[in-house]
Amino acid sequence: MRLVLILALDTCDPRGSIALLRDDVILGLESHAISEDYSSWLLPAISRVLTSASLTLPDVELYAVAAGPGSFTGVRIGLTTVKAWSEIYARPIAALSRLQALASESSGSSPYVAACIDARRNQVFAALYRRTGVSLEPLDSEMVIAPDKFIEWSIELAPADRIDWVSSDPACLTQAPLWSSRLALQETLQEVSAPLAPRIGQLGYRLSCQNHNLLTDALSLDANYVRRSDAELLWKGPAPHAS
Q1: Would you say 78 and 65 are in contact if contact means Cβ atoms under 8 Å apart?
Q2: Which of 44, 129, 167, 243 is 20 to 30 A removed from 136 (C-alpha atoms)?
Q3: Is residue 34 predicted with pLDDT exceeding 90?
Q4: What per-residue confidence (pLDDT) applies to 228?
Q5: What is the pTM assigned to this prediction?
């Protein structure tokens, strides 16, 4: 089977990263320096990773990108970058959820995995998944929600089963009043601080092997912001369904 060279990007928040993979094997990785803007960091970082592997952009056969949720500006920079290269080099794109990448880092074995990331304003970006073999099946759309409400919602969907909790920002859950009820069941909250670009690349490779039609192109690629940008909220006011 022919090997596939994958460039993976995660620019959804300041803890982003890029990774170069051949199939699901990591060839190179660079994490974002939080103090530096993505607009000045991203392209030089990609060049360094490619150069260290003696490769160039035309060698890349698949782009895997975190399409959200996260910072409006960060998500847009990552997607705009791969859109441009996809169009220039006629390469497909695997658009992945950052929450799914986070959930797939779970080291537990419970039937359900709940993943969340700090969304500020006392809310989290969150999703609940059911384990189905080696895959994770989302039980609903990704959401932005108060931590206590996310815990309550997850319990309602998995009333008789244990849940593995995974977060890059564990304090968002541990400070919620309802969290003590999960501790009583001896459930754990796993903190994931490692760069997510390698996992995004591996998920992109799995997607390409599963069904090439699940990939997208520059024209169809879209962001998953979950919550509108601050500028849009100020201009249009809150959406009717906002919590």
Answers
A1: yes
A2: 243
A3: no
A4: 54
A5: 0.89
Question: DSSP letters of the chain?
Answer: ----EEEEEE-SSTT-EEEEEETTEEEEEEEPPTTS-HHHHHHHHHHHHHHHTT--GGG--EEEEE--SS-HHHHHHHHHHHHHHHHHHT--EEEE-HHHHHHTT-----SEEEEEEEEETTEEEEEEEEEETTEEEESS--EEE-HHHHHHHHHHHSTTS-EEEEES-THHHHTSTTHHHHHTTT--EEE--S-SHHHHHHHHHHHHHH-GGG-B-TTT-----SS--HHHHHHH---TT--
Q: Among 153, 65, 128, 120, which Cα is nearest to 233's?
A: 120
Which structural domains are found in the chain, ordered by start? 5-98+195-236 (3.30.420.40), 106-191 (3.30.420.200)
